[in-house]
Amino acid sequence: IALVGLGVGLGISLGQRGSSGSVEQTMRVSITVASPTMPPHPPPTPPPTTPPTPPPTNLPTPPPTNPPPPPPMSPQTPPTPSPTPPPMPPPTPPPVLPPIIKKFQDDICAEIPNSCSDLSSPGTPQRKALEFLGGDPLFSSYPHTKKRQRFALAVFAFSTTMMKGKGYELDVSKDECLWGVNVDGDNDIECGPNGVVRLWLSSNLLGGTVPRELALLNDTLWGLHFTGNSLRSSIPTEIGRLSKLRTLHLGYNELTGVIPTQLGQLKNLK
């Protein structure tokens, strides 16, 4: 016998017993009831562990920090305005040349074309010489050769430092042959009956340049002595027009460039 679903076990044992010969049947029944098998209970879930909250630290609250007071304001001095420079005066125009000098300027320009620009440019030795001669009230009465001679010597004086030493005096009221009288009484501009024949200016501390206008002395000049000075720049090609030139001393200066081939035309050089 089985009790299904209850987990019951049934055991039966039979035996005989009796004193009177009768049969006494006994039946022992043992019933074992097995408890139904229950699924295992899961272990209880431990409660979540919350880390202990640290006790509050009672630190003293720092006092509020106040920003430093601003520095005292110094009185502002208004900037001093820069002085406004006075307006520049307009450039002084060059002196107006007298008509006789203007006519002479055109003659020189035709004779020495390379001088045309210098004759018209303010501040050049050529322009200064024209303005200087414009102060001569007798200029219109001179023969053309004398006008050329005075102009050539004036240009030389303004082109060099001739007037800064040895007591030379460029005086429009004097004859040009006296412009070369030095402090010793010697005349470094040697003249003959017809005009200037020699410029004797060696070792004379001359600076500046040799002007091309010396070619205007071609009718009379036979000697140029400029040794031992500080003349610079180059030798003008117009020097080759001094056909009567016999001596030309230019050594020991600061001249540059090449020797002009036009000097080969000077057949009287010694």
Structure description:
With 270 residues, the chain is α/β, with parallel strands linked by helices. Helix content is 16%, strand content 17%. The protein contains four helices and nine strands. It has a four-stranded mixed sheet, with no helix packed on it. Strands 5-7-9 form a three-stranded parallel sheet, with no helix packed on it. A two-stranded antiparallel ribbon has the order 1-2. Helix 3 (125-133) packs across helix 4. The chain starts with 7 loop residues before the first strand and ends in a 15-residue tail after the last strand. Residues 1-35 have low confidence and may be disordered.
Please outline the helices and strands.
Elements: E1 8-17, E2 24-33, H1 99-111, H2 116-120, H3 125-133, H4 144-159, E3 189-192, E4 195-200, E5 207-209, E6 223-225, E7 230-233, E8 247-249, E9 254-255
Helix pairs in contact: 3-4
In what order do the strands lie side by side in the largest sheet?
3-4-6-8
N-to-C span: 174 Å
Report the total helices.
Answer: 4
Largest sheet geometry: 4 strands, mixed
Shape: elongated
Could you name the ranges where pLDDT drops below 50 across 5 or more consecutive residues?
Answer: 1-35
Counted beta strands: 9
User: How much of the residues is beta strand, in percent?
Assistant: 15-25%
Radius of gyration: 67 Å
